[in-house]
Amino acid sequence: MDAAQITTKLEQLRDLQNTSTFLQRSQSDAIESIIPAEIQFAIDTIEQEYAAQAAELNRAIGELKSELTPLIVAIGATVKADGIQAIYSKPRVTWDTKALDGFAAAHPEIEKFRKIGNPSVSFR
Q: Is the pTM of this model over 0.85?
């Protein structure tokens, strides 16, 4: 399959995704159109009330996570409690690939330690 055929398939994917988004919006619009104004007003009021409570909870959750994170990092281990755990992950080791490639040119013996993973694709 050549690049032009792939481009055509990507355009098909885009069109399907756009159609899916349109369908979801149409469904929401259809539901909203059958709700009387006084009911919609009551729904909006309830959503605002719960949104304020949710915002406060999310703030408290964020603060507690911010407080816990350095404590978990300090002990360097996963901590479990009933129904929740804070999973500690060791720091990721990275290398300067460009510099190592240059070093490998002068020292080809290190090439046996090089591993190349599989390519991946993400759609945005």
A: no
